[in-house]
Amino acid sequence: MTTTFPSVSINTDRLVLRPYEEADIPAFVEMMNDELVVAWTSVPHPYTRAHAEDWVRRIAPAERAEGRGIVFAVTEFLTQRLVGTVHLHRTDWRTRSVEAAYVTAPWARGEGYATESVLAVAQWLFGDRGFERIELRVAADNTASQQVAQKVGCISEGVLRNAWIARGQTESGEWTDVRTDLIVWSLLPEDLDSADQLAEAGYSGYADWS
Fold first, then answer.
1. Of 5, 63, 130, 196, whose CA is between 20 and 30 Å from 97?
2. Whole-prediction pTM value?
3. Cα–chain-centroid distance for residue 91?
4. Half-sphere exposure of 92 (CA within 13 A, CB side)
């Protein structure tokens, strides 16, 4: 049984999802230092070039090589500008399930890029890799991420109480840890009616991966 993901690129009408490259490092540093990314993820802060280099050169490739998951850099098809990232992790090869996380650069928000990229990855996982479940765990107050889960077609399964440490800013601008609940969402193959889901989202052309 296959227990690693292949190194692939996935194309949509607007996006290319591919492995990270050295040229992505400056934009990746900028994205990971955005206030919303700092607030809702566990990335180091401040996020330095050294952190990004370690991620691009060692951590992300090892994730795939060791069978733990796969990391996609999400880029605009026309400009090749870094839009965001989709990270599949906590892969269970026996049950064919995986957890997905996603980040969008601040300049690219509001364009539907997160929905488009997660839908593309879901189609690839279900259609090409034979997966049966994608799980998302989203902080309860992270409304933008909750909306992405809903648009993709995920089903809310419940609340993990007090299960995550987010970050908030004090009046002085310092970051402090804040306990929060996680909402668990799941997506199964039968939840993803390809034609209707993509038409409703306004996208087409998710079938191209290599």
1. 196
2. 0.90
3. 14
4. 10
Q: Report the alpha-carbon distance of residue 179 to residue 185 in Å, rounded.
A: 19
133-139 and 82-92: which strand pairing? Answer: unpaired
Please say whether the beta carbons of 175 and 161 come within 8 A. Answer: no
Residue written as token pair 């390809």: 194
Give pLDDT tens digits for 20-29: 999 999 999 9
Segment 58-74 shows an average pLDDT of 97
Cα–Cα dist 29/14, whole Å: 23
Going by C-alpha positions, the residue among 127, 124, 128, 147 that lies closest to residue 136 is 147
